[in-house]
Amino acid sequence: xxxxxxxxxxxxxxxxxxxxxxxxxxxxxxxxxxxxxxxxxxxxxxxxxxxxxxxxxxxxxxxxxxxxxxxxxxxxxxxxxxxxxxxxxxxxxxxxxxxxxxxxxxxxxxxxxxxxxxxxxxxxxxxxxxxxxxxxxxxxxxxxxxxxxxxxxxxxxxxxxxxxxxxxxxxxxxxxxxxxxxxxxxxxxxxxxxxxxxxxx
Length: 201
Fold this sequence. Notes:
Blueprint: H1 3-12, H2 15-30, H3 37-43, H4 48-54, H5 58-72, H6 87-92, H7 109-116, H8 123-146, H9 151-172, H10 178-193
Helix pairs in contact: 2-3, 2-5, 5-8, 7-8, 8-9, 9-10
């Protein structure tokens, strides 16, 4: 096998995976809309023909990137299904943002995607919304397991705190910003688990 053939074979192996890795890095660094398909192909590296064979349109690549991210365990929501943690700790881990060595701080990738594709009917916005609804469902199940009287209500409050903390951490570039929301979440959980005093008969 000559050098050219060997190079072609190396570039052809795992093309889809390399494209997704390159897209994830570029999307996080400069945003989805600011990233061109040619940039992704160059960073992968793959030919444009290979790129479009896997992802005929940029929207296909974005959806695949979000699906891969959701399945990877690299998002805050992934902590909600960890069986090595008790329900309360799973919820509170939502407020643990990326470690300080990961700079700049990034917010929730699903919210970021929805912001860049604001049409609620678009496939990308729809997928992002589904992920945020799944997050609420998981927190609702956990608060119910903890014994909250109104698990759906407390879950909405908790996920609002988590998403808000992630967004502010990104805007302020403060990786430890989640501690403020975690303190509020602990108060919400404590109150949700405290029996409501009954009036005297």
